[in-house]
Amino acid sequence: MSPIFIAAFLWLIAAILWWSGWREEPIEGVPYWAVGIFLAVWPLAILGSLPVTSSVSLNGAWLWTLISVGALAWRIPPARRWMSLSAGILIGSVAILLGRIAYSPIGIAHGYTPWAIPILVGLLAALFLRSLPEQVLAISLSLILSEGIAAIVQAPGESMSEIRGAAWLEGWWIAVSFARLWSAAVKSAVEHGRKLTLKFSGKRGGQRL
């Protein structure tokens, strides 16, 4: 299946969820209208490209995503921004290492799926960082590092247009989706645990009375 099709499918799910109620979830430091504009423009950007040279062009959705991530990073407080960038470098290093192991002579390439690295990136981002802006910044940097290094190592003779912009977008949407799903699951589990604790404490208090 085409990576750009998977990316568009995940965008559609995110857009439906956002406009059907997930926008009520708190997004620290990000205006609701900004998320709406990003989601609205993304499918239009995916239809275009920006020619750099006669042999190199940049995917429009890739550019729009990076511009949006840059604006998002600017809104994050400096201390947390550096923390997110550090986490992104760490996660990217892990992704590069696992990718190299998978394709090494003793690796696991026969059972390797391109989705594995983005899923791991999303889970690590959710583990290290709590808010959406921080997770998105870390995920974006880690995927830029891992995809860039992979393109240079695996195909040093190809043009920069072959850095798999579509594959990067696919991985980005997968990683962000899993990061938010993991964060929502942990938040739900914590809230459920608190309710059970309060309920149990109330019962014990009633018995003492």
Automatic annotation (TrEMBL):
<feature type="transmembrane region" description="Helical">
    <location>
        <begin position="59"/>
        <end position="76"/>
    </location>
</feature>
<protein>
    <submittedName>
        <fullName>Uncharacterized protein</fullName>
    </submittedName>
</protein>
<keyword id="KW-1133">Transmembrane helix</keyword>
<keyword id="KW-0812">Transmembrane</keyword>
<keyword id="KW-0472">Membrane</keyword>
<feature type="transmembrane region" description="Helical">
    <location>
        <begin position="112"/>
        <end position="129"/>
    </location>
</feature>
<feature type="transmembrane region" description="Helical">
    <location>
        <begin position="82"/>
        <end position="103"/>
    </location>
</feature>
<feature type="transmembrane region" description="Helical">
    <location>
        <begin position="33"/>
        <end position="52"/>
    </location>
</feature>
<feature type="transmembrane region" description="Helical">
    <location>
        <begin position="135"/>
        <end position="155"/>
    </location>
</feature>
